[in-house]
Amino acid sequence: MNKQNLKKVTADELTWEVLGEIPSAKNELRFSSSGRPYHKDNAVREYKQSFAMQTPAKYKLNIACPVMVFTTIFQKDRRRDAHNATAVIYDALETAGVIYNDRLIVKWGGTAKIDKKNPRVLISLLKVMGEEKRNY
After folding, report:
1. What are residue 83's DSSP bridge partners?
2. Are 37 and 29 in contact (CB under 8 A)?
3. What is the DSSP secondary-structure string of 8-53?
4. Distance CA 34, CA 10 (A)
């Protein structure tokens, strides 16, 4: 991690929309022989790639300070668990290079709504002011 990249973070709030249905990652995580985690199903990997492509380049800041993340998840139906969907979103934030590590998410919240024709997620990420620097 280049420390110069950490100094470039100037935005206190980032908000954007990512289109597409969030796949379920429940019971899909496996570990390779070297101990590295991976998803058995390609759907989660493909969603993370799509998430990264839809994230504005100016938001790919590798933020390395505590953040709050709020999501509004628009699902096709209520069959999927919105709580598990947020875990996929938080991993995707890291994969896309928005945050350095999803352990930096110290506060979170969100809502789930139905939109059968346009599944998507609205994301708001805010830096947490007054948090002491910690070893994350």
Report:
1. none
2. yes
3. T---SEEEEEEESPPPP-TTTEEE-TTS-EEESSHHHHHHHHHHHH
4. 37
Paired tokens of 87: 């875990």
pLDDT digits (tens, 9 = 90+) for 74-109: 999 988 788 889 999 999 999 999 999 999 999 999
- Name the domain count of the chain: 1
Q: What's 32's domain CATH number? A: 3.30.1330.70
Is 134 among the domain residues? no
The range of the structural domain enclosing residue 105 comes to: 3-127
What number of other Cβ atoms are within 10 A of residue 36's Cβ? 8
C-alpha to C-alpha distance for 22 and 96, rounded to whole angstroms: 15
pTM of the predicted model as reported, rounded to 2 decimal places: 0.79
The closest of 113, 15, 22 to 69, measured between CA atoms, is 15
